Input
Amino acid sequence: MTAAPLARPTLATVLWPSPALSPALRAVVLAILGAVLLTVSAKVQIPFYPVPMTLQPLVVVLIGAVYGPRLGAATVLLYLAEGAAGLPVFAGTPDKGIGIAYMAGPTGGYLAGFVLAAFLVGRLAERGWDRAAVTAFAAMLAGIAAIYLPGVAWLATLVGTDKALAYGLYPFIWGDLLKIALGTALLPAAWALAGRNTPERHPRA
Output
């Protein structure tokens, strides 16, 4: 039986070791910062064909890659908890509703997929996938797929499969590939700047 590979240090741990803070307090600060970034990325729309896009899927997979699986997923859960509590943190809120009612609507599956994506990409990052362009691209592509699988599946229960694909997947493919390409450039560059590309075990984020 082969031993499980050791978890590599996350980028957040390397860039901010922060010995002055307890690990729990550091995690809280990072989670709050991540939730703020998710809110901002949901509100900013970038003109793109055929539909405007937000950077939120990119931020989700980057949070997973930078924070690791546990803190990455916990950060997204904090963001979702804020939305469930009625804070207008989601795209289109408060105009399109708030709270649980909004989360049970057409975008509910995608929001659930955010948690899966952050965890999956974080797990792959622990295995070093975020440190080279090819594997970083593959990790983020897997993360985007983890968003769309529950997203389109849930939307299909509301409007049917054909409409779910036509309105909930196809228009976003090129934009998301562009986001993945951007993330592919960012992650290895961040590791190069950090100057720490070592496989040793390190306290996880």
